[in-house]
Amino acid sequence: MLKKRIQKLLSLFPGDAVLITSPKNRYYFSGFTGTEASLVLTNDAYYIFTDSRYHIQAKNEAKGFTLIDTAKTSAADFIREEGYRLVGFEEDTVSVEKFRTLSQKVPDAEWEGVSPLISGIRKIKDETEVAAITRAAEIADRAFSELLPQIVPGKTEQELALTLEFTMRKMGASGLSFDTIFASGVRSAMPHGVASDKKIEYGDFVTVDFGCVFHGYCSDMTRTVVVGKANEKQKEIYDIVLSAQTAALAAIRPGAVCKDIDAIARGIITDAGYGANFGHGLGHSLGLDIHELPSFSPRCEETLAAGMLMTDEPGIYIEGFGGVRIEDLVLVTEDGCQILSHTTKELIEL
After folding, report:
1. pLDDT tens-digit profile of 38-66?
2. Which of 252, 257, 253 is nearest to 301 (CA)?
3. Boundaries of domain holding 262
4. What count of Cα atoms within 13 Å lies in the side-chain half-sphere of residue 36?
5. I need a labelling partner for 294 at 20 to 30 A (CA). Which of 228, 243, 263, 288 fits?
6. Is the CB of residue 207 less than 8 Å from the CB of residue 318?
7. In 3-state terms, the chain is what percent helix, strand and coil (to 5)?
8. Distance of alpha carbon 85 from its chain centroid, rounded?
């Protein structure tokens, strides 16, 4: 799989070599998980540059790469010595200072950004990536199921968020996709309300937006529950969001335009009178990063293709009252989509 990714990039870039320095892309193309390394990819061979701390790790993880000790030769020195003239680099992650250093060390090379090419390749997940993301989603589902009985009055948002994180790690996750959003009561009107010291109260909406990392890949899911019995207003808002979410799901398939999917959910919420209370995009792609391209937004004109991973997460947020968001993680398939989040979306009253 890794060789296919490299060959795809090199087939799109007409230069002599590509320098990879960002951790996520380094892992994507080589499998190396250490914190210090650079890759040089050419049509003839692949090279990994790192210091003695990571030599054994690089040999074990970066199969098919020639290992070069940075104490002897840096990636920039190697590029200069080999006489490469057109070299690709990640312009979205390389700092101005780093680029200045590269230009000085390799004065005869022309540097060309390849970040859009890499982003385009990473949009379509291969079997290995789908398997990792599916596993991350399974862990999240199981952990949330264990958390639900613990969401009771008196517990703090922070306490419950930490419990959720510990459970996911215990189940095999290596970390969080992002800081867990755990917002209860009026705080649930904050789309990115990270866990606070607020205590759960009877009658609260509780919105939990969370995910975990498995083999480097992220999951993402949101569920909103009610502690106790939901009132009529809570039921109304929840049902509107659920209707918008499921309608968008039904339209996700190859060839669909991203902004049209967003419009389906947004139209339902707007027609119900809450358009001003849904301010963010409907969803986004994910993978090694929690936010990748494309996105479900009013401005995204990209079309979906099989192998893309997307979130579908409409919401309604009312200041002083609370909010609802419901999110599934979805794989675009050849003839539609497959939902990877399996926790029920019926309103849970705890």
Report:
1. 999 999 999 999 999 999 999 999 999 99
2. 257
3. 127-349
4. 11
5. 243
6. no
7. 40, 25, 35
8. 35
Q: Are residues 231 and 318 located together in one domain of the fold?
A: yes
The answer to whether residues 162 and 193 belong to one domain is yes
β-strands 212-214, 205-210 pairing: unpaired
Concatenated DSSP letters of 69-97: ETTT--HHHHHHHHT--EEEE-TTTS-HH
Number of Cβ within 10 Å of residue 347's Cβ equals: 17
Q: Name the residue type at position 273.
A: G
For 250, the 3-state DSSP assignment is helix
> Coil, helix or strand for 60?
helix
SS3 107: coil
Residue 147 neighbours by CB under 8 Å, 6+ apart: 160, 163, 164, 167, 208
Residue 154's pLDDT is 97
Predicted pLDDT of residue 310: 98
How far apart CA 126 and CA 140 sit, in angstroms, is: 21
pTM: 0.94
Percent of the chain with pLDDT over 70: 100
Q: Please, are residues 39 and 61 in contact by the beta-carbon 8 Å criterion?
A: no
Encode pLDDT of 173-203 as tens digits: 999 999 999 999 999 999 999 999 999 999 9
| 1 has pLDDT over 90 | no
What DSSP letter does each residue of 288-312 carry, written as one string? Answer: SSSSEEEEESTT--PBP-TT-EEEE
Domain CATH number, residue 154: 3.90.230.10
Q: What is the pLDDT of residue 80?
A: 96
Q: Residue 315 pLDDT > 90, yes or no? A: yes
Q: Are residues 239 and 297 in the same domain?
A: yes
**What are φ and ψ of residue 334, in 5° steps?**
-65, -30
Same domain? 179 vs 149? yes
111 forms bridges with which residues in the sheet? 87
What are phi and psi for residue 268, nearest 5 degrees?
-65, -45
Which of the listed residues 123, 156, 178 is the one where a domain comes to its end? Answer: 123
Q: Which two tokens stand for residue 143?
A: 């952990």
Average pLDDT of the chain, as a whole number: 97
